[in-house]
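$ ./design --mode recover --in tokens.txt
reading tokens...
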């Protein structure tokens, strides 16, 4: 997802649901946000992997904010 500040790295979010807004004909997506450990209150710990991301937050966003596609692998 495109950040408001163009110098900031892109945000990672998983599209959970695609919806049309009848009021203004805008297409919206329900996303699950993924955060880098250093972007959280706890910060990055020695136990975090180099590419590890965390998730527990959902939000509605415009499809216009989508920058591209990435692959997120999960561990079982």
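writing sequence...
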């Amino acid at each position: 997802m495109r950040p408001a500040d163009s110098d900031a790295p892109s945000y990672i979010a998983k599209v959970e649901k695609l919806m049309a807004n009848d009021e203004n004909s805008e297409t919206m997506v329900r996303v699950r946000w993924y955060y880098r450990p250093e972007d959280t209150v706890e910060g990055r710990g020695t136990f975090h992997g180099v590419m590890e991301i965390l998730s527990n937050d959902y939000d509605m966003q415009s499809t216009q904010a989508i920058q591209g596609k990435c692959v997120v692998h999960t561990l079982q």
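exit 0
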